């Protein structure tokens, strides 16, 4: 570590110089904060301004740069100094002070002074990143040999990557191999296609970059991106290989049709599922299972068990197109046959509408919105279906030789015997008693199905609703809670093979990208620029396991005693572990518990008047304040903002630091948590709120009210609500009264 | 791993183009984004919230902008268009036309120029529902955070008040169109979509009846940074909207207009129903549809909205919309498909769930073959040319971004193969 030399550079324009006493700021920097270099410039982000800083870096030995000017969100390219050599700290005087406060008021100056104190403190405590670079393995392992897995493998290989493809069964191709025909995926969207799966299988088998393991299952994966050790089991023998990243493409299974007795399945032989229909067609003819009679009429029941809280509450996305396809080949195989499709809503989104249209143009395909009221077997073996024809508003009976239930898809992540509509959160498994420091607790022991990860938190990917290990982010469809492991295809969301091919390619890119970022010691999304790593002072660890439990990404494993075991390449640098640790032993080079504590201590709390510190999420709350500033909204002047990587990093010691210093209230502003969470780190803001649930313990020792600490949820576009949120909290704290520690 | 490799050109800086460029750059490849607008973000920048989470698109855009700002492998050209392409996979030469912004990189976004500008223009970001000055910031979260001058309305050097007001010499009224030539290995078209022109549907009254708006206008009317600061007020008299009707498939699934289903409009209307319901507890919503398309897990959102007693979903075809001239209220005539007969309904405002029309027109754009329907299919393209997002096929944001991430890998393959 080289010697600290802090340079403070204050920009005086964009109204900063007009609204603030810049000389006073300089005194704060050089006087009480003892910065050896402090300069002002009327246009700091100009080439000339930046050159002033550069000269000090080159000639004065400045290595910690405090830019007191505009928001860190703007002019980042101007103040872009090498993060491996320098610390750059942006103090927001423009948006967070002069654009949200009246000019030349004492309170305005006080905010600016404090912001500068905190910025200089932060810079003083921060060190440049030291990337942790190790040799990594860049082989991608693809799990599952269906259309998704085959595509991922080929796409990786075509980009020059080595691939290991693992398939449980004896042959490649998955469901696609069993398909009689596919529905069209290109103009003019009217003709059925022969599945191209055989060509894909040949391409994979013939590719010397892809090693295929059939009849193979994974018995264990341990390690981290770039260095996963995978134990493969094949007919009793086992082999351990090293790979870099994983694509999980294990697909789907049909919903258990035995649960669809109300639609005749199991009761009548001539009621089959859409999967059974496909198998039948592959054999060359559509006939009645009961007696082999050639089917003259086939009736399709859409949403068989789907969109139904009792069965699958979701829509499987593909079944409307599948039934249209099957109706079409019923007619192709026997032009005299008729097909009936009874639907709730016909769902053929996007360009598939053309396919729907082509089916509507066929007089032999009868389509209607309707409800199945009942069915019974006629004496001739056909099924008489009682349909409420909702377009005509009347009941009608349709006689069909075969009834096809358009049943849905269930993710293969779910172990056998679990219902998608009735799952425990995140993981499925069995409850077990566990001995811990806090006594015996009940803990869910997740059931392994596919990956058998040797991770402390679970052997499989955590799931969202209905068992799908999907991303919860609309903007980031490949966000994963297990770094380097990406789900693709129908295992993670109901989708057809066309979309699965696209998804397989996207997941392949993410796997390759994870290894590229890892090779540079950088995090993957969202902090893709970040080369710091969490560091643990394990000699002070009390094995409380909070960090290993709370990490949203399952980074930390445990030894037998409960001491965390690091896996730096799994880490996403959110700092949730740092916030969780009561011993304060976890830190990053540029982000530590002590740093924020010191910033709080650097604030000059006025002897009188309600005074509040506000911890804000840098991803959403910080920009929201900038937006309030752009709209020139006035904010309550008795708040000081401290930005965090995520509220998940909030350590309760900061509450004690703030309140024991006489600060009257602490407001946390972060992202929404709960079902529709918006936290970029999955559950950072939720962890903060859970910790605050226990804040009373901390405050009891100080004999203070728990209400002095509050967390609010604010989205990035809710800046218009910010002034009121601040006013309300200010009023609440003001009503509670002054902190008795004030002035001590 | 790839500094010797050629760059990847991404045409279009909406969320799909941004995703392709950022994902490829983080895999180690140089990427170039060419965007016609003065800002990145495209259509999603105009959305108030995403379905089904009801979260703001700017949350994800902000994160993507941060990834762009911290990644030297990404070059962004705004106000720029692809002019010509020559060469082949692995070695294309592309000419990019840079239209003059009249504001240079010295701009600090201090706003002094706007204070003095005497000229106003309709704000196209808000679909003309309000105005900006001739020099303006497209919106609060614009990236890059820099002003732009609409040179069609700016009176130029005869006024030059902004030039005088700008301390930073950031305004250059003489800025000329410029062009730059780049050598790239592959090209990804992420040119996105435009809202279908609702005036084409004569019977629905758009353009003639003030209180008939499109779903994209509804997004702006609901957004905190929109023309009404997030209060849903109807255009004719700024009355708060309490009774609203949504007309699904306005132009989509219609042989006279767009043959395709635009894939998002059902979910968009369900989402917009929540905007109204959240703002006014006594509001009423009617949604007239052909089929309610909420695929996959979106079903849960449909169910949630359907549980609201004040939201009615009616399978019906809107035959015409007329205006009550006394009140300005739109009056709908609907063929009730399930109940039979006709429904007549008077509401405060009608939202047309207009569909997505691909931005490019059929025929040949520079470097790419466009299908009859305006979409860019992957079939028939020359090597190294790809499409993604809605330029390829109509879809929601998540599906587009899965595809855009895949397009990043396809474009990389064209670069490493050489």
Keywords:
heterodimer; A: 744 residues; Rossmann fold; FAD/NAD(P)-binding domain; 4 domains; five-stranded parallel β-sheet; 28% helix; elongated; B: alpha/beta; 3 domains; seven-stranded mixed β-sheet; 8 helices; globular
Your description of this structure?
The complex is a heterodimer of chains A (744) and B (418). The mean pLDDT of chain A is 96. Chain A has 20 helices and 31 strands. The longest helix of chain A is centred in the C-terminal third of the chain and has 23 residues, at 497-519. Chain A has 4 domains: 1-128, Rossmann fold, CATH 3.40.50; 140-251 and 412-519, FAD/NAD(P)-binding domain, CATH 3.50.50.60; 256-409, 3-Layer(bba) Sandwich (FAD/NAD(P)-binding domain); 592-744, 3-Layer(aba) Sandwich (Rossmann fold), CATH 3.40.50. Chain A has 744 residues and is an alpha/beta fold. The two termini of chain A are 36 Å apart. Helix content of chain A is 28%, strand content 23%. In chain A, the strands form 9 sheets. A 7-stranded mixed β-sheet of chain A has the order 13-19-14-15-16-17-18. Chain A has a 5-stranded parallel β-sheet with strand order 7-6-5-11-23, covered by helices on one side. With 418 residues, chain B is α/β, with parallel strands linked by helices. Chain B has 3 domains: 7-98 and 177-192 and 359-416, FAD/NAD(P)-binding domain; 112-165, no CATH class; 196-356, FAD/NAD(P)-binding domain, CATH 3.50.50. Helix content of chain B is 21%, strand content 28%. Chain B is built from 8 helices and 22 strands. In chain B, strands 1, 2, 3, 4, 5, 10 and 22 form a 7-stranded mixed β-sheet that branches. The longest helix of chain B has 20 residues, at 397-416. The radius of gyration of chain B is 23 Å and the shape is globular. At the A-B interface, helix 11, helix 12 and helix 16 of A face helix 1, helix 2, helix 7 and helix 8 of B.
């Amino acid at each position: 570590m080289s010697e600290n030399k802090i340079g403070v550079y204050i920009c005086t324009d964009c109204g900063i110089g007009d609204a603030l006493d810049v000389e006073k700021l300089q005194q704060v920097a050089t006087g009480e904060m003892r910065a050896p270099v402090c300069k002002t410039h009327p246009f700091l982000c100009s080439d000339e301004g930046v050159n002033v800083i550069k000269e000090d870096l080159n000639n004065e030995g400045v290595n910690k740069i405090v830019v007191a000017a505009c928001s860190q969100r703007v002019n980042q390219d101007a103040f872009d100094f090498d993060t491996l050599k320098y610390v750059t700290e942006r103090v927001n005087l423009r948006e967070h002070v002069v654009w949200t406060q009246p000019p030349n008021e004492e309170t305005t100056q006080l905010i600016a002074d404090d912001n500068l104190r905190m910025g200089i403190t932060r810079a003083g405590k921060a060190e440049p990143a030291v990337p942790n670079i190790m040799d990594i393995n860049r082989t991608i392992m693809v799990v599952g040999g269906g259309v998704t897995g085959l595509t991922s493998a080929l796409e990786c290989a075509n980009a020059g990557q080595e691939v290991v493809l693992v398939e449980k069964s004896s042959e490649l191709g998955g469901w696609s191999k069993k398909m009689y025909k596919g529905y069209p995926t290109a103009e003019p969207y009217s003709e059925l296609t022969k599945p191209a799966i055989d060509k894909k299988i040949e391409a994979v088998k013939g590719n010397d970059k892809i090693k295929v393991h059939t009849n193979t299952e994974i018995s264990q994966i341990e390690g981290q991106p770039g260095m996963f050790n995978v134990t493969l089991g094949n007919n009793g023998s086992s082999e351990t290989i090293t790979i870099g990243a994983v694509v999980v493409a294990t697909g789907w299974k049909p919903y258990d049709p035995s649960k669809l007795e109300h639609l005749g399945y199991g009761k009548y032989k001539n009621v089959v599922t859409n999967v059974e229909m496909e198998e039948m067609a592959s054999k060359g003819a559509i006939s009645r299972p009961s007696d082999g009679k050639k089917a003259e009429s086939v009736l399709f029941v859409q949403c068989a068990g789907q969109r139904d809280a009792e069965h699958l509450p979701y829509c499987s996305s593909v079944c409307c197109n599948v039934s249209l396809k099957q109706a079409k080949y019923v007619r192709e195989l026997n032009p005299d046959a008729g097909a009936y499709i009874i639907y709730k809503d016909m769902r053929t989104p996007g360009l598939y509408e053309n396919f729907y249209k082509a089916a509507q143009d066929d007089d032999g395909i009868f389509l209607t919105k309707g409800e199945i009221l009942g069915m019974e077997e006629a004496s001739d073996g056909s099924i008489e279906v009682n349909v409420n024809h909702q377009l005509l508003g009347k009941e009608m009976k349709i006689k069909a030789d075969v009834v096809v239930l358009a049943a849905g898809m269930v993710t293969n992540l779910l172990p056998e015997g679990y219902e998608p509509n009735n799952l425990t959160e995140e993981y499925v498994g069995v409850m077990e008693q566990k001995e811990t420091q806090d006594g015996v607790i009940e803990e869910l022991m997740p059931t392994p199905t596919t990956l058998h990860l040797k991770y402390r938190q679970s052997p499989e990917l955590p799931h969202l609703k209905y068992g799908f290990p999907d991303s919860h982010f609309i903007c980031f469809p490949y966000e994963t809670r297990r770094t380097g492991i990406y789900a693709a295809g129908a295992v993670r969301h109901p989708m057809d093979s066309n979309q699965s091919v696209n998804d397989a390619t996207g997941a392949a890119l993410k796997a390759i990208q994870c290894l590229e970022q890892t090779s540079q010691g950088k995090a993957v999304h969202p902090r893709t620029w970040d080369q710091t790593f969490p560091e643990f002072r394990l000699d002070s660890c009390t094995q409380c396991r909070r960090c290993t439990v709370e990490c949203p990404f399952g980074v930390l494993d445990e030894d037998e005693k409960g001491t965390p075991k690091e896996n730096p390449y799994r880490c996403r640098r959110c700092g949730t572990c740092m916030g969780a640790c009561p011993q304060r032993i976890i830190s990053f080079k540029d982000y530590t518990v002590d740093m924020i504590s010191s910033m709080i201590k650097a604030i000059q709390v006025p002897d009188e008047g309600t005074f509040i510190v506000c911890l804000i999420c840098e991803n959403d709350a910080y920009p929201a304040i900038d937006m309030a500033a752009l709209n020139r909204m006035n904010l309550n002047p008795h708040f000081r903002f401290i930005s965090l990587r995520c509220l998940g990093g909030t350590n309760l010691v900061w509450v004690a630091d703030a309140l024991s210093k006489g600060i009257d209230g602490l407001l946390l502003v972060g992202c929404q948590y709960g079902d529709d969470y918006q936290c970029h780190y999955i559950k950072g803001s939720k962890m903060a709120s859970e910790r605050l649930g226990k804040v009373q313990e901390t405050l009891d020792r100080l004999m203070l009210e728990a209400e002095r600490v509050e967390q609010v949820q604010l989205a990035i576009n809710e800046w218009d609500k910010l002034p009121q949120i601040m006013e309300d909290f200010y009023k609440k704290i003001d009503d509670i009264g002054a902190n008795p520690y004030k002035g001590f | 791993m790839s500094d010797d490799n050629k760059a990847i050109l991404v045409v279009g800086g909406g969320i799909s183009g941004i995703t392709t460029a950022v994902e490829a750059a983080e895999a180690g490849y140089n990427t170039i984004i060419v965007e016609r607008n003065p800002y990145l973000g495209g259509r999603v920048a105009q959305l108030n919230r995403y379905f089904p989470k009801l979260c703001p698109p700017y949350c994800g855009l902000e994160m993507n902008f941060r990834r762009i700002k911290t990644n030297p492998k990404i070059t962004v050209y705004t106000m720029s268009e692809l002019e010509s392409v020559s060469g082949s996979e692995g070695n294309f030469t592309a000419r990019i036309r840079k239209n003059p912004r009249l504001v240079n990189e010295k701009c600090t976004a201090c706003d002094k120029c706007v204070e003095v500008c005497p000229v106003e223009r309709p704000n196209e970001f808000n679909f003309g529902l309000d105005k900006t000055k001739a020099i303006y910031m497209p919106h609060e979260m614009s990236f890059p955070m820099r002003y732009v001058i609409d040179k069609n309305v700016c009176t130029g050097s005869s006024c030059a008040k902004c030039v005088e007001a700008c301390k930073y010499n950031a305004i250059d009224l003489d800025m000329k169109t410029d062009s730059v030539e780049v050598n790239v290995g592959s090209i990804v078209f992420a040119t996105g979509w435009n809202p279908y022109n609702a005036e084409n549907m004569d019977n629905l009254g758009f353009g003639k009846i003030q209180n008939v708006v499109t779903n994209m206008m509804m997004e702006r009317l609901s957004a905190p940074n929109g023309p009404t600061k997030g209060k849903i007020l109807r255009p004719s008299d700024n009355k708060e909207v309490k009774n609203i009707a949504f007309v699904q498939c306005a132009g989509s699934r219609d042989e006279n207009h767009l043959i395709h289903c635009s894939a998002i409009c059902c979910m968009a209307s369900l989402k917009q129903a929540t905007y109204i319901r959240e703002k006014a507890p006594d509001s009423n919503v009617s949604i007239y549809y052909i089929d309610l398309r909420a695929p996959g897990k979106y079903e849960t959102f449909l169910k949630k909205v359907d549980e609201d007693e004040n939201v009615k979903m009616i399978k019906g075809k809107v035959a015409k919309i007329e205006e009550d001239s006394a009140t300005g209220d739109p009056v709908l005539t609907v063929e009730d498909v399930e109940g039979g007969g006709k429904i007549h309904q008077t509401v405060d405002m009608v939202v047309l769930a207009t569909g997505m029309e691909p931005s490019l027109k059929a025929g040949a754009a520079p470097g790419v073959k466009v299908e009859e329907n305006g979409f860019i299919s992957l079939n028939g393209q020359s090597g190294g040319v790809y499409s993604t997002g809605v330029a390829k096929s109509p879809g929601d944001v998540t599906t587009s971004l899965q595809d855009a991430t895949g397009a990043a890998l396809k474009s990389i393959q064209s670069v490493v193969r050489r």
